[in-house]
Amino acid sequence: MTKKERFAFVIRYFEEHAPNAETELIYDNPYQLLVAVILSAQCTDKRVNMTTPAIFERYPDMEALSHATYDELFPLIRSISYPGNKTKHLIGMAQMVMENFNGEIPSTVPELVTLPGVGRKTANVITSVVHQQPNMAVDTHVFRVSARIGLTTNATTPLQTEKQLLKYIPEEKVYIAHHWLILHGRYICVARTPKCGECGLRPACKYYHTAIRGN
């Protein structure tokens, strides 16, 4: 199977079995999504979803968050990984959005990555989810699943993975392909013991044919 054929198989499978895939973070607007994604770094979506309601109740919008103090915000995200840094990032992000972008969350990756706590992955998530831009966010799930299936070859960094995926995924499908790969990695192609017996991608998966079947 060529790489082009492998991508085509994977896309057809997910279009049939996960046509409405989306983020598992709970949010009502771009402000809430940006806060949630910043908090989700090296933390589960489940934990973030347990934490954000109290934040959004106290700080319902970007302006309110920009006036938060460290001592006020920190207790609300104490259970999140790296709460100290994320407290600083959230306050700094809100202040910069208010001061540099007139309170409007920027809609391009280069602008978003200027915000505290926002790296390329987060910026790609925001632009793809909110604006359906063809930007591929690569987290540990996307990185692992893409390599195992054989969608990427010798990709050693998230950026290399991103570029290889964008080469073969049709532009109009990039925004949902991000969710396909994340959810597949979260529930089927898990890190330690992938559930190959449950996986519909076996016919196209390099890992299955080499590590499991041995051919």
Automatic annotation (TrEMBL):
Catalysis: reaction(s): 2'-deoxyribonucleotide-(2'-deoxyribose 5'-phosphate)-2'-deoxyribonucleotide-DNA = a 3'-end 2'-deoxyribonucleotide-(2,3-dehydro-2,3-deoxyribose 5'-phosphate)-DNA + a 5'-end 5'-phospho-2'-deoxyribonucleoside-DNA + H(+)
High-level lineage: Bacteria, Pseudomonadati, Bacteroidota, Chitinophagia, Chitinophagales
Binding site for [4Fe-4S] cluster: 189, 196, 199, 205
HAMAP family, alphabetized: Nth
InterPro entries tied to this protein: DNA_glycosylase (IPR011257), Endonuclease3_FeS-loop_motif (IPR003651), HhH-GPD_domain (IPR003265), HhH_base_excis_C (IPR023170), HhH_motif (IPR000445), Nth (IPR005759)
Species the sequence originates in: Chitinophaga tropicalis
Molecular function (Gene Ontology), one example: DNA binding
Residue intervals of the HhH-GPD domain: 39-187
Protein name according to UniProt: Endonuclease III
UniProt keyword annotation of Nuclease present: yes
Coiled coil: none
Functional summary from the UniProt entry: DNA repair enzyme that has both DNA N-glycosylase activity and AP-lyase activity. The DNA N-glycosylase activity releases various damaged pyrimidines from DNA by cleaving the N-glycosidic bond, leaving an AP (apurinic/apyrimidinic) site. The AP-lyase activity cleaves the phosphodiester bond 3' to the AP site by a beta-elimination, leaving a 3'-terminal unsaturated sugar and a product with a terminal 5'-phosphate.
A GO BP annotation: base-excision repair, AP site formation
